C-alpha cells in the first residue's frame, strides 16, 4: 500500500499556546490576532464549552466571574431563505447593526454537513444548477458514491445587495423558486443590546423558541493534578523542545480525561493494567485536589467564549 498524502484535505490539529498574557485585557475589545484569542476567533460558534477550576477557586471567585459574563441567548425558528431577505428582518439584522466580532447575527440551519443543503450555501448539484447562483465545487474526499456538492458564498452586506438590483433579484428568485423549503434555524443576535424576546424584535414574527445557555456544575473529588509551573515550559535546546512537546501532549491527555470525569485520575484508583495502562504524568509530584467542571451547551458564539476566557483570567 502506498502512503499517499493529499495536502488539500483538512486534518485535525491540536493547538497549544505557551506564553504570557498582558496584565490587563479589555473585555469589550479583546485581542483577536494573538493566541489563544486568535484560535477562539477562528470558530464562529461552538455547541459546547467546558471549564475546569479547582474547587477552592470556584468557591472564592466564581460569583465574581459570573457577573462579568453576559447571558448567552439564542432562538430556534422556522424560516425559509426568502424570509431572511424580507422586510425588517433583512434591514435590521443584515444591512444595519454594529460590526461586533465578525457580524451582528449568527445563524445556522438544520441539516447534515456534506449531505443536506446547509446554509451558507452548500447545495447538491441539482439545486445549484437550478438556482443559477455562482459558486464552486467542494471536494468529496475521493468517494465516488458521494454526490457532488457546491458552496455558494453571498455577502448580503454589500452596497449592491438591495431590492431592485439585478444581482440581488436573482438571489431573491432562487430563494423563492428553488431553495424555498422551510428550515429549522438557530439564531443568535450578537449586538450588546439584543433582546430576542422583545416585542419590537424582527424575529418575533417567526415565533422563536428562546433558549438561555446556563452552566451545569459537575464536581470531581480527589483528583491527581500534575504540576503546571513556568519552569516546565522553558525550551531553549532541541532536547528541551522535545521534552516540552511531550509535556504538552501529556497535559492535553490529562485535560481530556479530566473533562470526561474518568476515574483513572482519582488518587485511589486501582484498575487492572490489562484494562488500562494510563498513568498521570509526573505522578510523584502530583497533588490530590477537588475540581469543579462547568459546562455550557447551545449556540455559543466565539465572542462569548473570549468573554468567558477573559473573565476567568
Verbal overview:
- The structure is a single chain.
- Residues 98-103 and 113-119 have low confidence and may be disordered.
- The protein has a 4-stranded antiparallel beta sheet with strand order 3-7-2-8. A 3-stranded antiparallel beta sheet has the order 1-10-9. A 3-stranded antiparallel beta sheet has the order 4-6-5.
- The chain is of the alpha+beta class.
- It folds into 2 domains: 37-70 and 215-312, no CATH class; 76-96 and 104-199, no CATH class.
- The protein has helices at residues 37-41, 55-67, 81-84, 87-95, 125-131, 166-177, 238-260, 302-312; strands spanning 45-54, 72-79, 105-109, 122-124, 136-138, 149-151, 183-189, 209-213, 216-225, 287-301.
State Rg: 24 Å
Low-confidence stretches: 98-103, 113-119
How far apart the termini lie comes to: 49 Å
Please work out how many helical segments DSSP would assign.
Answer: 8
Count of DSSP E strands? 10
Strand order across the largest sheet: 3-7-2-8
Largest sheet: 4 strands, antiparallel
By secondary-structure content and strand pairing, the structural class works out as: alpha+beta
Mean pLDDT across all amino acids: 78
- What helical percentage do the residues reach? 25-40%
How many independent structural domains?
2
In percent, how much strand structure appears in the residues?
15-25%
What gross morphology would you assign?
elongated
Assembly type: single chain
Element order: H for helix, E for strand: HEHEHHEEHEEHEEEHEH
Pfam family, one: Ribonuc_P_40
InterPro entries: RNase_P_Rpp40
GO molecular function, one term: ribonuclease P activity
Amino acid at each position: 500500500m502506498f502512503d499517499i498524502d493529499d495536502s488539500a484535505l483538512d486534518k485535525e490539529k491540536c493547538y497549544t499556546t505557551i506564553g504570557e498574557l498582558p496584565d490587563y485585557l479589555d473585555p469589550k475589545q479583546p485581542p483577536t490576532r494573538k493566541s489563544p484569542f486568535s484560535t477562539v476567533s477562528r470558530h464562529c460558534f461552538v455547541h459546547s464549552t467546558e471549564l475546569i477550576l479547582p474547587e477552592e477557586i470556584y468557591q472564592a471567585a466564581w460569583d465574581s466571574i459570573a457577573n462579568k459574563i453576559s447571558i448567552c441567548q439564542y432562538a430556534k425558528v422556522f424560516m425559509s431563505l426568502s424570509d431572511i431577505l424580507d422586510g425588517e428582518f433583512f434591514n435590521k439584522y443584515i444591512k444595519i447593526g454594529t460590526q461586533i466580532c465578525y457580524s451582528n447575527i449568527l445563524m445556522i440551519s438544520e441539516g447534515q454537513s456534506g449531505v443536506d443543503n446547509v446554509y451558507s450555501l452548500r447545495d447538491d448539484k441539482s439545486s445549484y444548477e437550478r438556482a443559477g447562483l455562482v459558486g464552486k465545487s467542494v471536494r468529496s474526499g475521493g468517494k465516488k458514491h458521494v454526490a457532488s456538492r457546491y458552496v455558494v458564498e453571498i455577502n448580503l452586506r454589500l452596497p449592491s445587495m438591495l431590492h431592485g438590483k439585478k444581482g440581488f433579484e436573482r438571489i431573491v428568485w432562487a430563494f423563492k423558486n428553488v431553495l424555498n423549503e422551510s428550515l429549522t434555524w438557530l439564531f443568535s443576535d450578537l449586538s450588546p443590546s439584543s433582546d430576542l424576546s422583545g416585542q419590537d424584535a424582527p424575529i418575533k414574527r417567526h415565533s422563536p423558541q428562546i433558549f438561555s445557555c446556563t452552566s451545569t456544575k459537575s464536581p470531581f473529588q480527589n483528583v491527581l493534578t500534575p504540576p503546571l509551573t513556568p519552569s516546565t515550559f522553558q525550551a531553549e535546546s532541541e532536547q528541551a523542545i522535545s521534552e516540552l512537546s511531550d509535556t504538552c501532549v501529556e497535559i492535553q491527555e490529562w485535560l481530556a480525561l479530566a473533562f470526561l470525569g474518568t476515574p483513572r485520575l482519582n488518587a485511589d484508583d486501582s484498575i487492572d493494567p490489562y484494562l488500562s495502562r494510563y498513568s498521570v504524568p509526573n505522578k510523584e509530584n502530583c497533588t490530590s485536589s477537588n475540581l469543579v467542571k462547568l459546562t455550557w451547551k447551545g449556540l455559543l458564539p466565539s465572542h462569548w467564549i473570549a468573554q468567558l476566557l477573559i473573565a476567568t483570567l
